[in-house]
Amino acid sequence: MKGLGDNDVRDGIRERILVAGDKNDARLVGELACSLLWHYRIAHTGCQVTDFPYELTRSYQSGSCLVATYSGVGKVLIDGEWVILENGSACLLPPYAFNSIQAVEGREWGFVWVKYLEDAGSRPVVTAMSPISGKMAVSPLYHAIVGLHDACESGECLSAQNLWVELIHKYVLHFSQPKVEDERVWHLWMAVEKRLAYAWSLEEMATIAKLSKEQLRRLCQKQFGRSPMQQLAYLRMRQARYLLGATQMKIANIAAQLGYADSHSFTKAFKKLNGISPSAMRM
């Protein structure tokens, strides 16, 4: 992983449109704005075409962000590994995490994004059952974003702008909603997410799901790309990032709330999965 700090490399951007919803973000001053986006806590949305060496890296992302490719290819850092984002595919970048997107050398990349702003009082778009990445019909979302941009630029009435905003948010929700292939797995992770501090074993999880351990491993690998124990660690770390970013809880208290014996074991696990220590997230 190259560095752990924020990095903005704008070189390579060929075309770009953006519509801002967060009027308090100084970085968005002067951008085309639509106050209706804020109804869904959408900080900004847009689309762009870029070449290498474009890069956008955030050590602390303040909200969920959907990134989807409509032409060419790019790459996204997911769970500490680079994943190629091809045409017709999307990913959900979780809040309070180290995230990075980059153009691929020698390849053009056209993509759209919808960035939310989430805090302790709001519900993240990314849930325990949301896909990390997957196929998506990106064209409708692309046209909705362009439609909103054009409506705002031409000064169309708010009712017309609202239709585009509704579509954009619904397309994101459609992708982020659980793709439940087996109700038993869904019920298991809903139960686990409510008791992250519990010392779950594979046997107990399989019992709740009414599956054999091997069946549970296979279904989790298919749906999440992780083993059951890796999914448990992912959910704990996701909640840890949220608590570190949205609250002032002491690290020792966060560790206890998530089932770690002490802050040392929590810090070790956190750094292994996130590439940065818990305390560094608050610096």
TrEMBL record:
Family annotation (InterPro entries): AraC_XylS_family_regulators (IPR050204), Homeodomain-like_sf (IPR009057), HTH-like (IPR037923), HTH_AraC (IPR018060), HTH_AraC-typ_CS (IPR018062), Tscrpt_reg_AraC-type_HTH (IPR020449)
Pfam families in alphabetical order: HTH_18 (PF12833)
PROSITE patterns the record matches: HTH_ARAC_FAMILY_1, HTH_ARAC_FAMILY_2
Protein name, as recorded: Helix-turn-helix transcriptional regulator
Alphabetical UniProt keywords: Activator, Cytoplasm, DNA-binding, Transcription, Transcription regulation
Highest rank taxon of the organism: Bacteria
SMART domains: HTH_ARAC
Keyword Transcription regulation: yes
Domain HTH araC/xylS-type positions: 186-283
UniProt key word Metal-binding: no
